[in-house]
Amino acid sequence: MNKFNTPSGQHSVPPQFIADSSILATIKRDLQRRGVAATTAQIAGELQALIARESNPIMKDIYRQALAWVVNQEEATHSE
Q: Organism's domain of life (predicted)?
């Protein structure tokens, strides 16, 4: 597993990170545990901040894929 740091602490990234459909719930649960009521917009904002700060191109790509997934989930929620 890869490890990365976010404003809310260090996290492990399992190999199926991008393919796992529970990522949004996992991120929300992590933030809720820290007392933050996370909206999709807040999660997207955190991912955008990670992309801006990240120097490793592989991790930057993973964050971009995660952001795209979050945005797609939000759009799917509103189109139903």
A: Bacteria
> Hey, what are 17's tokens?
């990170």
Q: What is the pLDDT of residues 2-22, one digit of tens each?
A: 555 555 566 565 555 544 445
Sorted by where each begins, the domain ranges of the chain are 2-79
What dihedral angle (degrees, nearest 10) is formed by the CA atoms of 11, 15, 53, 40? Answer: -70
Contacts 24+ apart (CB under 8 A), 6-14: 6/46, 6/50, 7/46, 7/49, 8/34, 8/36, 8/46, 9/34, 13/62
Residues 51-62 pLDDT 10s: 898 888 887 888
Of the candidates 66, 68, 59, the residue with the CA atom closest to the CA atom of residue 5: 59
Backbone phi, psi, residue 21, to 5°: -70, -5
